[in-house]
Amino acid sequence: MRVLALDTASTQMVLALADFDEVDASAAMVASCQIDAPRQANQVLLTQAAQLLAGVGFEVSDIDAIVVGRGPGSFTGVRIGVATAKGLACGLAAPLYGASTLDAVAWRAWWAGVRGRLGVVADAMRKEVYPVRYALDDAGVTRLEPDTVAKPAQVAQQWASEESSLTLMGDGLLKYAELFEGASFELAPAGLWLPDGQGLISAFARAFAIGAAGSGDAAALVPVYTRLSDAEENEQLRLAQMTDPRDAERRARLQHEIERDDREMRIS
Predict the structure, then answer these.
(1) Is residue 168 packed enough to be buried (19+ CB in 10 Å), middle (13-18) or exposed (0-12)?
(2) How far apart are CA 121 and CA 132, in angstroms?
(3) Which residue, 52, 45, 44, 53, is CA-closest to 69?
(4) d(Cα 41, Cα 229) in Å, to the nearest integer?
(5) pTM (2 d.p.)
């Protein structure tokens, strides 16, 4: 099937086209591009996708499936990507699959020749990072731990105590590289710190192979957040401050919505 993949979870928007073999979960790249689009993905994503398709003589109707980077990353960026991907999938009556944005970074490192232990440190804002470790060998990339969010100093201390050698990547290093300076850490070239098209397609292929890309149902695909957004946390605070009996119905409704979002976040 011909796949259009997109990721807007970071400041670098990623688009890729690939021919994907569902039998052996292998992909042949057709075209890809990376565009620096901080806070602009919603304005340029569809235009850039159309240009990518036109550049290889394809139309939107030639796409058989959509793949989206589910994060974690910028909350707004993740939502833009997932919402756009769902709209495309529904409009095309095509399946929608997901891939980890952090896995895409790890696979970019693999294609660049990095081998051994790898740590991806993505910026989570609020003076936090999304840290995940991987093992890279000639066969591919193996994720070693689930998504989480943590203070960068804590991550650096833990990894230093547990790893004898670790290559580091991720846009969190733009802010916190000095915390990871040490004998056991080696920073990969900064040009590899963000996802690219080849990495995104490879992350999807691995997820598909192990049954982690989703069912293809666009309605069932959810983003990876790892925590509540600022707006949701503020809503919880307002909810806790509601004491007027007349607010009981609204408080119950909001609590139900928060619990629903929290369940979806943990399931993802």
Answers:
(1) buried
(2) 7
(3) 45
(4) 19
(5) 0.85
